[in-house]
Every structure is written in C-alpha cells, then in structure tokens.
Amino acid sequence: MKIIYYGHACFGVEIKEINLLFDPFISPNSLASNIAINEIKADYVFVSHGHEDHMTDAIAIAKNNDAIIVSNFEIINWFKAKGIEKGHPMNIGGSWKFDFGKVTFFNALHSSNMPDGSTGGNPGSFIVETDEACFYFAGDTGLFCDMKLLAEFKKIDFAMLPIGDNFTMGIDDAILAADFINCKKIIGMHYDTFPYIVIDKKIALEKFNNALKELILLNIGASLTL
Ligand code: NI
Ligand code: MN
Ligand 1 centroid vs 131 CA: distance in angstroms? Predict the structure, then answer.
C-alpha cells in the first residue's frame, strides 16, 4: 500500500492500482505549491467533513478522474447539487464493501459546515480494511473515548491523526489516541498549514519516541510504502 502526502490532511492511498484520495485541500495551500492537482489520480475521493480545508479540490479532482466521492449523506447531497453525480453517502457506524476493501464511517469530535454555510451533517472519519492493511483516517477530531472501540474490534496497522492542536487534537492527545486505538504507527496531519497549527516537529517526534510510538511526518509530495 503506497501513501502519498499532499499536505494538510490530504493523502493519496494506492491499493492494488486503485487510488483513494482523502480530504483534498491543495490549490489554496501555499505549502503544497509543488503539487499539480490535475496530475492526481483518484478513483475515490473521501471527504471527512464539510470544512473548506478538507474539500476545496474535491470537485475538480472528482471531475478530472470521474471519481466517486465518499462522505456523509449531507455532503454527498451538497456535491450532487454542484453537479457531482457519482457519490457514495454513508453515515456514522455504517460500513460498505468497495472493490478495494471495506470502509467504516466512524465518529469524529468536530463540526461540519459547508463553505456556503449550509449543513455538512456530522463530521466523520474512515476506517479502511483491505487485504494488505487496515488504517484509520481520523479526519479533524479531538480525543474521544469511543476510539477505544477501534482497538476492541479492529486491528489498525497505521493511522493518520491530526496533531496541530487548536482546531483538533495536539501532540499529547494524539499519543493518547494512539494508545486508545492500539496502534504504534502514526502519520501526522493537520499541522503547519495555518499560523494556529504550527508545531515544533522535533518536539513532536521526541514525544512520540518517548511514548514508544512512531510518528511519521512526510514531506509534501513524498510517499511511503506500508
Ligand atoms: Ni475541520
Ligand atoms: Mn481542518
């Protein structure tokens, strides 16, 4: 499974030639100016919630690739009204078997208005289970106790967790979240993009290391195989 970081909370995940894309926010992100959105391949575009910094490029990339957008019911309806017919609506606690694996739409403790102020339903996260690995894309969230359910019912190999603080969990709570979900391999996201979420990466890495966990901070445009 190949993971590519496109900055902020946006990742591409390649599973046996099927391309998933999570929370596309690239063209307004000055830190991601090295990424050309027209070159991004996506069969599925996942949107965790309605905030702009998670979906600005979703329509353009979905159109370029004739991709299916996967999100909550309200967000899929919002995209439909914008002319995106290929949507897969989900809601909290639901699972669906796609051609690449099984996806569960899980809680996130956050908010979810659309950029035009209309409702974006409830914010969510995605657990993706495939033949190769199981991962948790937490979206924007604070720490919450139900994350412990994931450790009870899933074997999570790695997780993308927000670490930038202020709008989401910070480093210390992300370490607790890693404990809650019983996963030692964490890919950091939602940091450095805006002044409120600038972190000291050296301290973040040290803290995870001291907690006997691995924090992976990818350069924008870099990829890794897990
Ligand atoms: Ni948000
Ligand atoms: Mn956000």
Answer: 30
What whole-number distance in Å separates Cα of residue 116 and Cα of residue 83?
16
The Cα 137–Cα 126 span in angstroms is 5
- φ, ψ of residue 6 in degrees (nearest 5): -110, 15
Ligand nearest to the CA of 162: 2
Q: What are phi and psi of 43, to 5 degrees?
A: -90, -30
Distance in Å, CA 113 to ligand 1 centroid: 9
Please tell me the distance from the alpha carbon of residue 206 to that of residue 187, in angstroms, as a whole number. Answer: 14
Nearest bound ligand to CA 111?
Answer: 1
| pLDDT value for 23 | 99
Cα-to-centroid distance, 127 and ligand 2 (Å): 18
Q: What is the pLDDT of residue 63?
A: 98
In the chain the first and final C-alpha atoms are separated, in Å, by 5
Of the candidates 130, 124, 127, 131, the residue with the CA atom closest to the CA atom of residue 104: 127
CA distance 46 to 23: 6
pLDDT of residue 167: 98
d(CA 194, CA 167): 11
Residues in the chain where the model's pLDDT stays below 70: none
Q: What is the Å distance from ligand 1's center to 47 Cα?
A: 11
Ligand nearest to the CA of 190: 2
58-65 and 73-81 helices, crossing angle to 10°: 70
